[in-house]
Amino acid sequence: MKRINPLSLLLQLVFIICLNNVSHAQARVNLKDADIYIHDTLLIEPSQAVHIRSLSTETQNTAKFRPKKDGFRTYHFVTGEKFSSGLEKNKVPEGAWVSWYINGNIDKKVNFVEGKKESAYESWYENGNKNAEGQYENDLRQGDWVFYKEDGSLMGNYKYDKGNIVE
Fold this sequence. Notes:
It is built from three helices and twelve strands; from the N terminus they run H-H-E-E-H-E-E-E-E-E-E-E-E-E-E. By secondary structure, the protein is mainly beta. It folds into two domains: 1-68, no CATH class; 70-167, Histone H3 K4-specific methyltransferase SET7/9 N-terminal domain (Single Sheet), CATH 2.20.110. The protein is globular. The termini are far apart.
């Protein structure tokens, strides 16, 4: 028997409630297989679902579900600012991706291979100061990682092996 992911079920429920003017056929879309557009702008899915209720009814009525397609994507916050961009292949991230905070500052840069984090990783705080830098192998932290405090000062250096701290 297939196990039901409670988060996926909750997000689907939120979409059905928030977008009550969307046809039943559209509301029953599996969110892993579809992107959500508002005014033909691609939104980040599914984390932005909870913010759709803050939009006017007229804007909510423009919501459309479209099947995911391979290719370069730019997702947006529900307010229109860029959220992330990169290549998707077989419905998962592939290659270099960048994500931003709503204020326009970079959140993180990460590379993916078949949907798993691989190679260099960098992240920043919303104020623009560096948060962390290191390497991923097969979606796990590997090697030397450096972490910073929000004020930019050094928090610590750690060595990882297959996602576990070794030093």
